[in-house]
Amino acid sequence: MVASPCTGVCTLDRQLGICVGCLRTRDEIACWGSTTDAVRLQILEHIRERESQGHRRVAPAAE
User: Residue by residue, what is the 3-state secondary structure of 1-63?
Assistant: First the structure.
């Protein structure tokens, strides 16, 4: 099973339409739990594309 890219920083950037923690869209987040590993790998590729476009993940705050 492909592990979730969730970092626990679950905040959507409304302008970009992606989570600032994992860089997934709302739809990608919603389908993650019920989709196949093939689709999950596609989502991870979309995340890498977003990172290559300069989007950066917000790390969880240190406790």
Answer: CCCCCCCCCCCEECCCCEECCCCCEHHHHHHHHHCCHHHHHHHHHHHHHHHHCCCCCCCCCCC
Residue 2 phi, psi dihedral angles, 5° rounding? -80, 125
What is the pTM for the complete model shown?
Answer: 0.91
What is the distance between the alpha carbons of residues 26 and 60, in angstroms, rounded to a whole number?
A: 19
pLDDT interval class at 61 (50, 70, 90): confident
CA distance 5 to 3: 6
Q: What is the pLDDT of residues 28-51, one digit of tens each?
A: 999 999 999 999 999 999 999 999
